[in-house]
Amino acid sequence: MEVNVSYLGDVQFEAEARGHKIVCDQPLEAGGADEGMTPPEFLLASLATCAGFYAVQYLRARNLPSAGLRVKVVAEKALQPARLDHFVITVQAPGITQDRDVEGIRRSAEKCLVKNTMLIPPSISVAVEAPATAALEQVT
């Protein structure tokens, strides 16, 4: 899996994966043009769409209605270090009336790849690639 991000200027970036592109920006009050979601909003969107995918898989497997399905994710900002915390995923499944299906949808959403990645912290490394001449100029 790979995503490439290009700097567009000011506080905007463009993310591209498999030929699909989205713009990341900041709100006006943070110096942006408000032309796209912020990185934390992308994280919430990723979690919500992943949970929604698994919920729909449950519904499809049982020939239950999936029209109108919505997923909301909220999180709180936490400090030291700055991060998001206390995520709540709410799946709204209109037309589902049986308790067993409500529980089935919940169990399915629990299988979300993004959620599980966040629960079991992955290893993350940061590398910087810069031309050798730039590195030499900064040293002198």
Could you give a quick summary of the protein structure above?
The chain is an alpha+beta fold and 140 residues long.
Descriptive account of the structure:
This protein has 140 residues and is an alpha+beta fold. The chain folds into 2 domains: 36 residues; 75 residues, GMP Synthetase, Chain A, domain 3 (2-Layer Sandwich). The chain contains 4 helices and 5 strands; from the N terminus they run βββαββααα. The strands form 2 sheets. A 3-stranded antiparallel sheet has the order 1-2-3, with no helix packed on it. It has a two-stranded antiparallel sheet with strand order 4-5. Strand 1 and strand 2 form a beta hairpin. Helix 1 packs across helix 2. The longest helix has 23 residues.
The main pleated sheet reads as:
3 strands, antiparallel
Derived from helix and strand composition plus strand pairing, the structural class reads alpha+beta
Level-2 CATH architecture of the largest domain: 2-Layer Sandwich
Uncertain residue segments: none
Helical run tally: 4
Q: Strand share of the residues?
A: 25-35%
Q: What overall geometry do the principal axes of the alpha carbons give?
A: elongated
The overall strand count is: 5
Strand sequence of the main sheet, in spatial order? 1-2-3
**Span of the ends, CA to CA:** 39 Å
| Count of domains | 2
* CATH superfamily label of the largest domain: K homology (KH) domain
Radius of gyration: 20 Å
Strand-helix topology:
Blueprint: E1 4-9, E2 12-17, E3 20-24, H1 39-61, E4 70-78, E5 83-92, H2 99-110, H3 113-119, H4 132-139
Antiparallel strand pairs: 1-2, 2-3, 4-5
